[in-house]
UniProtKB/TrEMBL annotation:
Bias (Polar residues) ranges: 1-14
UniProt feature coiled coil, ranges: none
Protein name listed in UniProt: FMN-linked oxidoreductase
NADH:flavin oxidoreductase/NADH oxidase N-terminal domain sequence ranges: 66-410
Keyword Electron transport: no
Taxonomic superkingdom: Eukaryota
Keywords annotated in UniProt: Flavoprotein, FMN, NADP, Oxidoreductase
One Pfam family here: Oxidored_FMN
Cofactor: FMN
GO molecular function, one term: FMN binding
PANTHER family reported in the protein's UniProt record: NADPH DEHYDROGENASE C23G7.10C-RELATED
Location of the region described as Disordered in the Swiss-Prot/TrEMBL record: 1-20, 426-451
Species: Acaromyces ingoldii
Length: 451
């Protein structure tokens, strides 16, 4: 598919001249920092902290315990699939989408789930990092983002969709509301959908093929090769996606893993693929930063009464201790996605109790990240700030809240501090915070936005 085939232009509009035979990959070879001499967006310089006030924890820099990588604040853009890709390549769309978070002060951006193999993509429109040819487009993306704002850290989530592969993205399935997968004729890969065991995710979904023991080892290699591509592209860290029912999570949970080889049965066996993959990345890239996202629970404890086992917080606590030995920088604590009968009730900070539970392990590494409606409601920043104050987490991940408002970090700073944190100097004409504009616990001041 060439871009001109997939894009329509209003009458009278010029269609851009695309190179007809090139995929829609981002290609930028000129990077120049766009500003100098200003405090980085998303930071709170001493001069704007009023006497007697303290800088909110959300705006403290965070040093990661293993790699010593410094994040300029505790705000992380959670990975978000955009299903806007041809053949796995990052496109100009990603620069616009992620660029707005960079300009508005998020400290760290995690690029969406990127397939470590083409059959491991969730949908045909997923981002990929499964061939060397993807590297220049990823390099363009990372370098351009970093040229926008100082101190920005950028990582990428490495993913294999497992039994949730070859499915429709929410906005490509059109009328196909009840048809759960993309057929081979429609561009899917139904015969290549794999999992620990031949168990479909739900009714009407593809029944995956169980991986052989040798193939599981091949998956490990695919993750390690993808990490190599990511580091070559300039990413500061990689995150292994072991949450939301995708392949690594489906190995962890006894609900989806019924294997009898070295990858099934005991906790040690079910976690072997994730742990060995993390260990190999750690060994091959000792200086680089490695993060892991887990579902702390399948949200399926109700099946225990039927004599079945699921993945739960107790096993996650055990996993946390093992990952600490491996040398993981951040454990990003999410939940669910493994089974259609999960019982979950999203509300502000709904997954924070799992990070809280893990904080009782009292480990210096990995640092804990929490995610799930952490933007709060009326008072931006307070829910997240409290999680940090209570020591439940060291980093806070935001997805939908930032989609709704990429400038959320500025609102959070204004609310917690009474003055906006350092912003994008090109936007210096944005109004200062006015008395009464913030509703938080701190009295607002009329101080200017510091640029
Ligand atoms: C559009 C969208 C795409 C997402 N894609 C991913 C993804 O690529 N990888 C992932 O681990 N989670 C993904 N998620 C989940 C988010 O990262 C996050 O964990 C979840 O939305 C809860 O956080 P929130 O309440 O701040 O949105 C996605 C969420 C949204 C809304």
């Amino acid at each position: 598919m060439s871009p001109s085939q997939s894009t329509s232009y209003a009458s009278g509009q010029q269609a851009p001249k695309w190179p007809a035979d090139k995929p829609l990959a981002l290609q930028i070879n000129h990077f120049s920092p766009v500003r100098e001499g200003h405090p980085p967006p998303g930071t709170v310089p001493d001069e704007i902290v009023a006497e007697g006030e303290e800088r909110p924890l959300l705006f403290h820099s965070v040093q990661l315990p293993v790699s010593r990588l410094t994040l300029k604040n505790a705000i992380v853009v959670s990975p978000m699939c955009q299903y806007s890709v041809v053949d796995g390549y990052p496109s100009p769309y990603h620069l616009a989408h992620l660029g707005s978070f960079a300009l508005h002060g998020a400290g760290t951006i995690m690029v969406e789930a990127s397939g470590v193999t083409s059959a491991g993509r969730i949908t045909p429109q997923d981002l990929g990092i499964y061939k060397d040819d993807h590297i220049p487009a990823h390099t363009s993306l990372v370098s351009a983002l970093k040229s926008f704002t100082e101190g920005l850290t950028v990582g990428v989530q490495l993913a294999h969709a497992g039994r949730k592969a070859s499915t429709w993205s929410p906005f490509h399935r059109g009328e196909r509301k009840v048809k759960e997968y993309v057929t081979d004729e429609e561009g899917g890969w139904t015969k290549e959908v794999v999992a620990p065991s031949a168990l479909a995710w739900g009714k009407g979904w593809i029944t995956p093929r169980a991986l052989s023991t040798a193939e599981v080892k091949e998956v490990q290699k695919q993750f390690v090769d993808a990490a190599a591509r990511a580091f070559e592209s300039g990413y500061d860290f990689v995150e292994l996606h072991a949450a939301h029912g995708y392949l690594l999570h489906s190995f962890l949970s006894p609900l989806s893993n019924q294997r009898t080889d070295e990858y099934g049965g005991s906790f040690e066996n079910r976690s072997r693929l994730l742990i060995d993959t993390a260990k190999e990345i750690r060994a091959k890239f000792p200086e680089r930063s490695l993060w892991v996202r887990v579902s702390a629970t399948d949200y399926a404890e109700h099946v225990h009464a039927e004599g079945k086992q699921s993945w739960d917080i107790e096993q996650t606590k055990q996993l946390h201790k093992v990952l600490s030995q491996v040398g993981v920088d951040v454990l990003d604590v999410s939940g669910g996605g493994l089974v259609e009968f999960q019982k979950i009730s999203p509300r502000p900070a709904y997954q924070l109790p799992y990070a809280h539970e893990l904080s009782k392990n009292k480990l210096a590494s990995p640092l804990l990240g929490t995610v799930g409606i952490m933007e709060g409601d009326e008072y931006p920043g307070q829910v997240a700030e409290k999680a940090l104050e209570d020591g439940d987490a060291s980093l806070v991940f935001f997805a939908r809240g930032l989609l709704a408002n990429p400038a959320w970090p500025e609102f959070a700073g204004a609310n917690l501090l009474g003055v906006r944190p350092a912003g994008n100097p090109q936007y210096h004409r944005v109004h200062p915070v006015k008395p009464g504009e913030t509703k938080g616990k701190k009295a607002p001041s009329t101080a200017q936005n510091h640029n």
